[in-house]
Write a structure and sequence with these properties.
InterPro entries: Ap4A_hydrolase, Calcineurin-like_PHP, Pesterase_MJ0912. GO terms for molecular function: phosphatase activity. This is Metallophosphoesterase. Pfam families: Metallophos (PF00149). One of its GO terms (cellular component) is cytoplasm. The chain is α/β, with parallel strands linked by helices. The chain has a single domain, classed as 4-Layer Sandwich (Purple Acid Phosphatase, chain A, domain 2). It contains 8 helices and 11 strands. A 6-stranded mixed β-sheet has the order 1-5-6-7-9-8, covered by helices on one side. Helix 1 packs parallel to helix 2. It is globular, with a radius of gyration of 17 Å.
């Protein structure tokens, strides 16, 4: 499903992965209020629900704010009442095993109305900003759970770009999420933009998460500070103590094995 948002020449707030982290989402919405950014100017790359302690409340908050949400694999799976998150993790990896804790918790929290809303989220969103056309997806269009990293081969990005244009016509830039790391990458076709996620730090040893602001045709990545201790407490109160709770405080993922070797540990600490 494709949703065209038309022309948005005012600043656009781009973000991904609230991950059931209500405290991070509330901090982001405070940023939007301070900057005068309305819901129509906010686009999420998906996975509203995942690791955190407040899935129901996070869905309610993002629906109230009026942001456009691209369907992530978590939205797809919860909408169809699937037994797992469909994140694309290798079987037996830390991510795969840890999902056995947080996914059933989230599944129990999401009601029928929220699932129906998730099922109606578009697979791809487009809009025009300052004369350029942008497409927004979750992971890849060939595979919603495809991990596209800052160092993925050019051919990977080009294959996804071609798939997007086959679906909705020419685009100048692509916005995507899923991998959890913010990055901007120039390609022969245009910019590939991942604004990062707000619900979990990017494995860099800091509590701050990431979001992007598109303004005047340029994207800048920003750090988001929020009450990580309170978000951690909410997870622990829900019995979510498999490791993502401590990640909110330490800034390091318990599932680092999902990352390419070159992006693990201290290699991100200066980002």
């Amino acid at each position: 499903m494709h949703r065209d948002l038309g022309i948005i020449n005012d600043p656009v707030l781009l973000f991904g992965g609230p991950y059931s982290n209500l405290h991070a989402l509330q901090a982001l919405l405070a940023v939007a209020t301070r900057l005068g950014i309305a819901g129509r100017q906010m686009i999420c790359t998906g996975d509203v629900v995942a690791y955190g302690g407040a899935p129901r409340e996070t869905v309610a908050a993002i629906r109230r704010c009026g942001a456009t949400v691209v369907a992530g694999n978590c939205e797809k799976q919860l909408a169809r009442r699937a037994p797992d998150c469909g994140c694309g993790f290798e079987e037996g990896s830390a991510c795969d095993l840890l999902s056995l804790g947080w996914y059933p918790f989230a599944d129990r929290q999401i009601d029928a109305k929220a699932r129906a809303w998730m099922g109606a989220c578009p697979d791809i969103v487009s809009f025009r900003h300052q004369g350029a056309r942008y497409a927004v997806i979750h992971g890849g269009l060939t595979d919603i759970a495809r991990f596209i990293w800052p160092n993925s081969p050019d051919a990977v990005l080009q294959a996804e770009w071609a798939e997007i244009e086959d679906e909705i016509g020419p685009v100048d830039h692509v916005v995507a999420g899923h991998c959890g790391l913010a990055f901007l990458r120039d390609t022969p076709r245009g910019s590939w933009i991942n604004p990062g996620v707000i619900g979990l730090p990017p494995n860099d040893g800091r509590q701050q998460t990431r979001y992007g602001i598109l303004d005047g045709g340029e994207v800048q990545i920003h750090r988001l500070s929020y009450d990580a201790e309170a978000a951690c407490d909410a997870m622990r109160a829900g019995g979510l103590t498999q490791g993502y709770d401590t990640a909110l405080l330490s800034g390091y993922w318990p599932s680092e094995d999902v990352l390419p070797a070159a992006l693990r540990g201290p290699s991100l600490a200066s980002g």
